[in-house]
Amino acid sequence: MHYPMYLVDAFVDQPFSGNPAGVCILNQEQPASWMQNVALEMNQAETAFVHQRADGSWNLRWFTPQVEVSLCGHATLAAAHALWQHAGETAATLNFHTASGLLSATRMGDEIQLNFPADIPQPIAQVPAALVQLLSKQPEWFGQGRDDVIAVLDSAEAVRCFVPDADLIASFTTRGLILTAPGDAGSGLDMVSRFFAPKVGIHEDPVTGSAHCLLACYWGNRLGKTHLRAYQTSPRGGLLTLDWQGERVLLSGKACTMLRGEFLG
Fold first, then answer.
1. Would you tell me how many other CB atoms lie within 10 Å of the CB of residue 56?
2. How many CB atoms lie within 10 A of CB 138?
3. CA–CA separation, 130 and 115 (whole Å)
4. How far is 24 from 38, CA to CA, in rounded Å?
5. Residue 16, pLDDT above cutoff 90
6. What is the DSSP string of 16-51?
7. Hey, which residues are catalytic here?
8. Strands 19-25 and 3-10
């Protein structure tokens, strides 16, 4: 069988930035083992697999090169972009059935807005010794979300200059570590962040939509805001607009297709 395959940069306003994701459009559900092998072959942080249901909605699953994950923002944005740009979808809103429940993507001008579950982090009093070793000090705040831990630093520069150690990060995380700090003065940003998930095969993720479901809640509470601007300050970088609406977070960003073809496996 031949399956349409795309490489899409997500959360970008120009090529060669943001977070690349593979998108594979299926005509029917495939075994998880096959999708895992395709994701390994693609070797992106995540590859999204979509196929259409009888009611016009879509099933969506995400795989890193090593494991299936329960939620991925940038690959969802990439999948929606590919369906609109290359698969003939015309609906203004796409509904996705996923391991994290029903998610949606809506066209908003030249941006795509994702509707995801909010993730309110809970404080943890005991900071892992490995994290203190990594930072050479205590974080300003440390907490736990559904899948990831979050460490708050005192400046955007501290986040940018952080040097990761995959083994140390893997020693105290279930999935990933989010580092975050306030945006630089005058930048128009409420926050910056970086994301590391070596346990699932991601040394550093360029732009992580699911992490911003947690970041929107933390910074929303701290700043008393529900509309926020965020920048993930990885080497590729990515800009997101966040709207926290109680149990949901709306994440908005752009995407562009970098490659398209057929997967022949």
1. 10
2. 11
3. 34
4. 9
5. no
6. T-SEEEEEEE-SS---HHHHHHHHHHHTSS-EEEEE
7. 46
8. antiparallel
* Structure token digits, residue 202: 């991601």
Q: Nearest Cα to 239, choosing from 193, 177, 181, 186?
A: 193
Residue written as token pair 């930048």: 187
Q: What is the pLDDT of residue 13?
A: 73
Q: Are 82 and 25 in contact (CB under 8 A)?
A: yes
Question: Strand pairing of 202-205 and 191-197?
Answer: antiparallel
CA 12 to chain centroid:
13
Query: Could you give the CA distance from residue 158 to residue 153 in angstroms, rounded to a whole number?
Result: 7
Give residue 119's pLDDT. Answer: 97
Kindly state the DSSP code that residue 131 receives in the 8-state scheme: H
Q: In 1-144, which ranges are continuous DSSP H helix?
A: 32-42, 73-86, 129-135
* Angle 115-196-214 from CA coordinates, rounded to 5°: 35
CA 35 to chain centre: 19
Q: Extract the tokens encoding 264.
A: 């022949």
Structure tokens given for 125: 């009093």
Encoded tokens for 114: 């994702």
**Other residues' Cβ atoms within 10 Å of the Cβ of residue 251:** 26
Residue 100, Cβ neighbours under 10 Å: how many?
Answer: 19
Q: Which two tokens stand for residue 92?
A: 């203004």
Tell me the average pLDDT across 110-118.
95
